[in-house]
């Protein structure tokens, strides 16, 4: 397998899951290259791509030694190992993992999925039912409520400081309006979004590195 001596992220620019490792890599000052993958045209289902990720999804991170790693939150854990983005204390670290699992089980399946069908997928809004949208709204609002209650008593999801838990949850929460979610009833979430965006090293979802 060809290696580049740096991380290579196979990515779709507008995807929140792909944004997570981009944001972490930038915060950590790790150079990387981007390979754009057009999932709508089957580029994640080619034999070459499936050889790297049999699940046929992006993001896919290829390490400098050529080893592939799938799943955005697994990438966050790998990249942040030993950094300030992961607590040293075992309990605080487990609390970070707790929020990563929450993001994938309770948050992303509602907020990210609604955004994909209603904002990103060409013609997607016509392909879903009112019942599906109502389901996303109900369960998404429940997830946002959990986040709001936490943020009413804490500044971050990593207990006492910004962590990969914040990166994971920020990726889709800050664009939740694109999936039809109104964030105005969640002032603590709004303040947290502003805190994350104001951190040194922050880049927005449109940012991409130079591959040069």
Automatic annotation (TrEMBL):
Record keywords: Transferase
Annotated ranges, domain GST N-terminal: 5-87
EC number: 2.5.1.18
A Gene Ontology molecular function term of the record: glutathione transferase activity
Gene3D superfamilies named among the record's database cross-references: 1.20.1050.10, Glutaredoxin
SUPFAM superfamilies: GST C-terminal domain-like (SSF47616), Thioredoxin-like (SSF52833)
Domain GST C-terminal: 89-212
PROSITE patterns documented for this protein: GST_CTER, GST_NTER
PANTHER family associated with the record: GLUTATHIONE S-TRANSFERASE-RELATED (PTHR44051), HYPOTHETICAL GLUTATHIONE S-TRANSFERASE LIKE PROTEIN (PTHR44051:SF2)
Protein name: Glutathione S-transferase
Organism (species): Prosthecomicrobium pneumaticum
Lineage, uppermost ranks: Bacteria, Pseudomonadati, Pseudomonadota, Alphaproteobacteria, Hyphomicrobiales
């Amino acid at each position: 397998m060809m290696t580049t001596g740096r991380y290579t992220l196979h990515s779709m620019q507008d995807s929140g899951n792909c944004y997570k490792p981009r944001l972490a890599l930038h915060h950590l000052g790790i150079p990387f290259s981007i390979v754009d993958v057009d999932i709508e045209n089957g580029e994640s289902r080619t034999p070459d791509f499936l050889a790297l990720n049999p699940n046929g999804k992006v993001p896919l991170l290829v390490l400098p030694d050529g080893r592939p790693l799938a799943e955005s939150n697994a990438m966050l854990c790998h990249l942040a190992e030993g950094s300030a983005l992961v607590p040293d204390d075992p309990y605080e670290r487990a609390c970070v993992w707790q929020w990563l699992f929450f993001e994938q089980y309770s948050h992303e399946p509602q907020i990210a999925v609604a955004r994909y069908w209603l904002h990103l997928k060409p013609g997607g809004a016509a392909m879903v039912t009112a019942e599906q949208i109502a389901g996303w709204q109900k369960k998404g609002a429940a997830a946002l409520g959990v986040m709001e209650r936490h943020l009413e008593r804490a500044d971050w999801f990593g207990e006492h400081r910004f962590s990969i838990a914040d990166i994971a949850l920020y990726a889709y929460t800050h664009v939740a309006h694109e999936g039809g979610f109104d964030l105005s009833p969640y002032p603590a979430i709004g303040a947290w979004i502003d805190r994350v965006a104001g951190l040194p090293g922050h880049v927005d979802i449109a940012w991409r590195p130079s591959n040069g």
